[in-house]
Amino acid sequence: MDDHSRGGGGADNSAQRGAKDAAHHAERAASSPAARTVARAGFAFVGLLHILIAWLALQVALGGSSKSADQSSAVQQIASAPGGPVLLWAAVVCCAALAVWMVIDAVAKWRREGKPTKALGPGGTALAYFALTWLFVSFALGNQKNSSQQSQQTTANVLSIPFGPVVLFIAGLVVLGIGVYFGFRGVTRGFLGKDAQPTESAPDWVKVVGSVGYTAKGIAVAVVGILILVAAVHHDPKQQSGLDGALKSLASQPFGTWILAAVALGLACYGVYSAARAKYGNFDQ
Questions:
Q1: pTM of the full predicted structure?
Q2: Domain boundaries of the chain, sorted by first residue
Q3: What are the tens digits of pLDDT across the range 197-219?
Q4: Dihedral of CA 245/246/252/258: which sign?
Q5: Cα–Cα separations (whole angstroms), residue 266 to 54, 55, 230, 261
Q6: How would DSSP label each residue in 140-151?
Q7: Which of 57, 72, 251, 278 sits CB 3.0–4.6 Å from 147 for a disulfide?
Q8: Cα separation of 170 and 109, whole Å?
Q9: Could you give the 3-state DSSP secondary structure of residue 228?
Q10: Residue 20 has what pLDDT?
């Protein structure tokens, strides 16, 4: 019995050492100059995507464009540019590398601090970058889908399951909370120094565009959350049309043209800030 226990304990210790070694090797790989360079390039593509979304939103605000102001339309702009397929696959590689780096950073922080809550920030960011990677993959493979239609279909699927409206309402509250969090980080500049963000030593213009950009993105995400809540309350998936619907709902408000134009410029600032992270982001884990 004792021998069995000792054998089991040895196996457990061996497994733990193996996990620690694997995590250590992953951290070393993520810290290599090549890995950091590719991950930094991911920020450049994230920045480009937000600048294109801002341009589409500004067209809606100024000229009543019928184009969707969302991620899928922005990626479509990249796909239709000269060398579009090459750019799409480059975006896939760089955004995937950035997502993987964030996962490794989340695990490293969890191990160092001993608290799973320390992994929430980089872990959530990693999920967002994996989703963006999948979007680029879809367009690179020719599966071009409208984000608004996808959002409505997903909403309809959730509403059709047992307790679907409750699940959707909770999801709306979560998205609304994320939007408020983004806005709070923008106003307080709480984003500096966290999760491969620039530090306080970054140039002032980087801090300014980051603050404006985070605030604007917070507004846009919060409106998406509100639309999800409305769809849940009314049991109507058409009420939820993603980022495009959120931005266009701003345009329908009093002084909507000015509001949407301001948010569009803010999203452009977020794009510039994201691109600046390619140079000024702190990748020291």
A1: 0.78
A2: 32-280
A3: 888 888 999 999 999 999 999 99
A4: negative
A5: 8, 11, 25, 9
A6: HTT----HHHHH
A7: 72
A8: 28
A9: helix
A10: 57
Residues 145-170 have pLDDT tens digits of: 666 667 777 788 888 888 888 988 99
CA distance 66 to 146: 13
Give whole-number Cα distances, 46 to 29, 172, 211, in Å: 23, 24, 17
Q: Are the C-beta atoms of residues 144 and 138 closer than 8 Å to each other?
A: yes
Residue 168 CA to residue 230 CA, distance in Å, equals 10
Expressed in percent and rounded to 5, the helix, strand and coil fractions of the chain are 80, 0, 20
The single-letter code of the amino acid at 200 is E
The position carrying tokens 């806005």 is 183
pLDDT digit string (tens) for 214-248? 999 999 889 888 888 888 887 877 766 667 677 77
